[in-house]
UniProtKB/TrEMBL annotation, chain A:
Subcellular location: Cell inner membrane; Membrane
Catalytic activity of the protein: [GlcNAc-(1->4)-Mur2Ac(oyl-L-Ala-gamma-D-Glu-L-Lys-D-Ala-D-Ala)](n)-di-trans,octa-cis-undecaprenyl diphosphate + beta-D-GlcNAc-(1->4)-Mur2Ac(oyl-L-Ala-gamma-D-Glu-L-Lys-D-Ala-D-Ala)-di-trans,octa-cis-undecaprenyl diphosphate = [GlcNAc-(1->4)-Mur2Ac(oyl-L-Ala-gamma-D-Glu-L-Lys-D-Ala-D-Ala)](n+1)-di-trans,octa-cis-undecaprenyl diphosphate + di-trans,octa-cis-undecaprenyl diphosphate + H(+)
Descriptive protein name: Peptidoglycan glycosyltransferase MrdB
Organism: Paracoccus subflavus
Gene giving rise to this polypeptide: rodA
Protein family according to the UniProt entry: Belongs to the SEDS family. MrdB/RodA subfamily.
One Pfam family it belongs to: FTSW_RODA_SPOVE
UniProt keyword annotation of Transcription regulation present: no
InterPro entries the UniProt entry points to: FtsW/RodA (IPR001182), RodA/MrdB (IPR011923)
PANTHER family: CELL CYCLE PROTEIN, PEPTIDOGLYCAN GLYCOSYLTRANSFERASE MRDB
A GO MF label: peptidoglycan glycosyltransferase activity
Predominant place of localization: membrane
Documented EC number(s): 2.4.99.28
Free-text function comment from the UniProt entry: Peptidoglycan polymerase that is essential for cell wall elongation.
HAMAP family given in the database record: PGT_RodA
From TrEMBL, chain B:
Membrane-related topology note: Single-pass membrane protein
Residue ranges occupied by any Penicillin-binding protein dimerisation domain in the UniProt entry: 65-238
Entries under InterPro entries matching the protein: Beta-lactam/transpept, Beta-lactam/transpept-like, PBP_dimer, PBP_dimer_sf, PCN-bd_Tpept, Penicillin-binding_protein_2
Principal location class: membrane
Chain's gene name: mrdA
Signal peptide interval: none
One GO CC term on file: plasma membrane
Biological-process GO terms, alphabetical: cell wall organization; peptidoglycan biosynthetic process; proteolysis; regulation of cell shape
Subcellular location: Cell membrane; Membrane
Protein name, per record: Penicillin-binding protein 2
Amino acid sequence: MSYLDYNVAHTPTGLRKILYLNWPLVFLIAAVASIGFLMLVSVAGGQVDTWAKPQMYRFAAGMVIMLGLAFVPMWFWRGISIPAYVCCFLLLIAVDMVGVIGMGAQRWIDIGPIRLQPSELMKIALVLLLAAYYDWLAPHRVSRPLWVLIPVVLILAPTALVLIQPDLGTSIMLVAGGGIVMFAAGVSLWYFGAVIAAAVGLVAAVMKSRGTDWQLLKDYQFRRIDTFLDPAADPLGAGYNIIQSQIALGSGGWSGRGFMQGTQSRLNFLPEKHTDFIFTVLAEEFGFVGAMSLLGLYTLIIGFCLYSALTNRDRFAALITIGISGTFFLYFAINMATVMGMLPAKGSPLPLVSYGGTSLMILMLGFGLVQAAHVHRPR
Amino acid sequence: MTRNAARPGDEAGSSVTRRGLMLAGLQLGVVTTLALKLRSMQVEQAEEFRLLADGNSIKIRLLVPARGLIHDRNGIIIAGNEQNYRVTLTREEAGGDVEPVLRRLARLIPISEARMAELLEEFTKRSAVTPIVLADRLSWEQFSSIAVNAPSLAGVTPEAGLSRAYPRAGDLAHVLGYVGPVSDYDLSKIENPDPVLMLPEFQLGKVGFEARMEDVLRGKAGQRRVEVNSAGREMRQLSRQEGDQGATVQMTLDAQLQNYAAQRMGAESAAAVVMDAQTGDILTICSSPSFDPNKFVRGISSADYKALMNHDHRPLADKTVQGVYPPGSTFKMITLLAGLESGLITPGSRFYCPGYTTAGGRRFHCWSRGGHGSMDAVNGLSQSCDVYYYELAQKIGIDRIADMARRLGLGQRHDLPMSAVADGIAPDGAWKQARYGQAWQVGDSLNASIGQGYVLASPLQLAVMTARIASGREVRPRLVRAIDGVTQPEPDFPDLGLSPENLRIARLGMDEVMNGARGTARRSRILREDWRMAGKTGTSQVRNITAAERARGVISNDQLPWNRRDHALFVCYAPVQAPRYAVSVVVEHGGGGSAVAAPVARDILLFALAGGLPPLDAVPDDQRAAMEERHNAMTLFAPEAPRLTRA
């Protein structure tokens, strides 16, 4: 049976594709987003119009995008992987240039009403290109140094552009997202071990350098690290947000204070309630039960994605699914760890829940790819 | 990228599977860690955190910074801050129901029923913990009576804050603009608004200098750390760190001169600009009639606002930069200089004026129906002979005229920190094609040559033009003299590149307008030789005169309704020997430039030269009595100079 026959015989066509969608995933995404709407109503003091309503419109648009993309066959995604990467790369350069000309950090380009953030798009494009690369590369070459160097360059080039914006968070996400695809593609564990060892060594060197002549970071950067390690040392200064977040979260207890009853978030102890610290509000108002429910839903989303990937015999599709779900995983894990004080504070949204258009759209675009991979899997 | 043709299907698949499972394991590990951390915080340590939350605690409240002061060039405060006693109410602290508290408060200070309903409506819309301003600008008696009765007024907080005040009231209203409370519309326009904008007492620059210099004037918010109980009520203040006041800005304006200019224009619908002819400093930029910006700061009543909107002299419009007018004969220096610079005429070249000329099959009339006879450059300007310019325009073409207009500052926006600064129009063929899709006609050139037709200029642009002619340099206007005591560098303007001889002719023509035996504005000349003044009148039509009308005899302005009368314009500078001040005056529908605008401009110029009320002996005998009478009728601000730096 030729490749063509194989595809025609086994892949659903036309509107029948809708039956082959990963429906559990669709419902899980909608469930998480609904929790988000509820929390946005709560932080707006019961007002629907403030945040929840615009977010609902965006989510509806995102759903349409996701379902639309699910109909696009894999040969198309494979075909645009290189142009998409190159486009995003050029946009990143353009944004950096505009930033330089405009005398300030700029991360987006305005296209009419849409605010395009190339670094966000790059997360998807990078996964796409790396998946196509490993689909093309013969498996026995995957761990040869030269063939490892190529994806490393593909990852580091856009990362460098994002880093000079400067946007440390997104650059870390790009490296991690790319690393996940490389890991899933079977690159030898020795490489990952070496990178982790080097990172640990670098951190050790940086910390050792403090107070010496060859100090590697500025004093204020060290102070930020101190604050993370011991927020209580400066409760009203930089550690304020983390401490307030922890108090609010912990005081939620087993079942929480109830919807719209969270005193800590209500009294504005918390900053950025509708974006970065929305998980804290959930944990305070719905307690351990509520927080675990959301974590459970997230885990199920990852689970369904991984299951879809592992049962997909198309290597390209499997790698895309793993890469995108891995990025999604990093999003919520980093946000939750941050608000619980396990990671240094830096602005990161809780995926599908935090208020904000760009990250929501990018996520739904990513899930569109995951759905397309699922619908068009060889059977 | 083609797909891996020789893929040993299951081998690749299994590697993905193996690694996928490892990844799943890693992710599960992270999720477990998060879950364990959640459990330890929310289940095991929940009691501790609950105690911390109840004792919580310390809140940071922002303090509105004092807005930067604005001084005039002599240190007189033209925008300051005054003490404002206000009272706010927080719904949560009032126990949820605000109405009884409001009723009790209404016994201490007057709150109308309408206001009461408005407030109740607002409380339903805002969050329970947001303080809402109940009353503003209370007297000290009212304020202290509320403070004394505070125990029975739960949630009510009397506050003393600062509010913007404009001591010169309407004089500088258009240039300074005003501040006001932040609206949702304002917020929607600002990317990442400063949190201080959310405070109810914050005042944001809405229009004019206040808006354009917002970043400089705002300052930095201070912080107050307070301890609150679990209901959000403030228990005590732990620390207070005042913010930084916004920068003190010294403007180039002269408040006394502006005051005189406003009084001199009186109730006319008019605009006056006084500029330093060398440095570009705007000394006065005054639009009349004006309004009291303090009313806008306090929240203007709808009746007052309607009155301003419906006034036919448009007090809210800034006629100095926003208003554009056909410059009329004040444009003739431009046509003349374009002609002289082209080399196609010399100062001695003569044109004959029989009272009209014919071009493109139409008759174009001179203002002097009998004609001026043979005119050279200086006479053509001093007697404002239209036919001289009609002939000149036909000779040199519109492009040279438009180019000269732009070199002298017309048809371009001068970037002053004010609102709605107009571009004006210096028309040429390309402009008409782009704007109307029609070809330029010779008649258009003739109209443009005397500042009619498509030409439009603001009083600011006319002042810039005059300053450039007087100094021969590319003077640009400026309004900021110093910020926080740091004086802006003295500008060094490049030479205009016009031939000194041609400039001399244009200046001589303007001198003759004032001092020549047949000058059109001779009546408004300055007698003192060391203040000798040069100028040019202009009268611009706001309607077309039809042939039929002309046949019947042109109706004089006095017989027309106000809004159809001609605009009166005048530009001038002095002293002729060493130009210091350039002035432009436009009186909307005032009639003739020489009769209406010139005396106003002359008096303002005299005030600038004398540094105070114009001495009577500087004007011709027959005008002294009238001038004295005018001075006596004026109520001017005392020339006090309180050089305060900080409020």
